[in-house]
Amino acid sequence: MSISVKCTDCGKALKAPDALAGKKAKCPDCGATVPIPKPTVDAEEVYDEPAESYEDESDSPADDADGRKPCPMCGETIAAAAAKCRYCGEVFDSRLKSGPRRRDSSDDYAGFWLRFVASIVDGFICGVVLIVVLMIVGGIMVAIQGPGRGNDPGAVEMIGGFVIWAIAIVFPWLYSAFQESSPTQATVGKKMLGIRVTDLEGNRISFGQASGRHFGKILSNMFCSIGFIMAGFTEKKQALHDLLASTLVVKD
Question: What is the separation of C-alpha 63 from the centre of its chain, rounded to a whole number of angstroms?
């Protein structure tokens, strides 16, 4: 048996076990708290929804009684290691709680100036790393070209210049792509400003998507950096590289 109820926030039609009658549960879609009414005698009976829609894989009937606990939200007995209550949908795992959320207002998106300050921080970090690399490579070149070694200085300088050029391209790419596709979804500069990168649905982006976003900045930088300035007046505050990679920069 189950009780039909409608979420007051998102309007989703839900079915809750009659064990939750008179209690509260969370909507699995929007996370809003939904009161479960007590059924009346002549209430229409509805088919019970499978328990799988209320539980996490770690919460299964096979768990023994010693490994169970009451849900702090609805009071039902669940597995002690459960990340989510099988009855009311309450989430206990912080990794699940940090999932995507709806973006209904332009205030939820990071505008031009927030992104600009974050890029200055990230640029400073990359610049320091590249200076250190330049000093190391330069020191190696001086050591190789020392007197009596018989090496061709032109070849050494060419190789050293190529190494510096390659690192100057590869390091900023890996720096941004790895961090923006990580669980934090943000570079150091973005973390400091409280913003992160998501896809159009608010989910974490892949490394490939983050890479496309990074190299899309080459186009954003053309024509007086108009691609970056677009973040100040597009509907969802997307720069040109965001539009190309189908990404958003949102506030936490």
Answer: 32
Average pLDDT of span 177-202: 94
Average pLDDT over residues 218-245: 92
Report the largest interatomic distance among the alpha carbons of the chain, rounded to a whole angstrom: 102
Same domain, 185 and 124: yes
Given 97, 122, 141, which residue is the final one in a domain? 97
Please check whether residue 90 is in contact with residue 74, taking contact to mean a CB–CB distance below 8 angstroms: yes
Mark whether 223 and 190 lie in a shared domain.
yes
Q: Tokens 């002549």 sit at which residue?
A: 42
Calculate the alpha carbon distances from 40 to 34, 49, 108 in Å: 18, 20, 42
Q: What angle do CA 46, 47, 53 make, to 5 degrees?
A: 120
User: Is 74 in the same domain as 155?
Assistant: no
Write the pLDDT tens digit of every residue in 48-105. Answer: 444 444 444 444 444 444 578 888 777 788 887 777 777 777 777 655 555 555 555 6
Q: Mean pLDDT score of the chain, rounded to an integer?
A: 79
The answer on 128 and 89 residing in a single domain is: no
The answer, as to whether pTM is greater than 0.70, is: no
In contact, 86 and 51? CB cutoff 8 Å:
yes
Q: State whether 46 and 85 are in the same domain.
A: yes
Provide the number of structural domains found in the chain. Answer: 2
Domain around 133: 106-251
At 102, which helix (H) or strand (E)?
A: none
pLDDT tens string 27-41:
777 777 778 777 654
DSSP symbol at 52: G
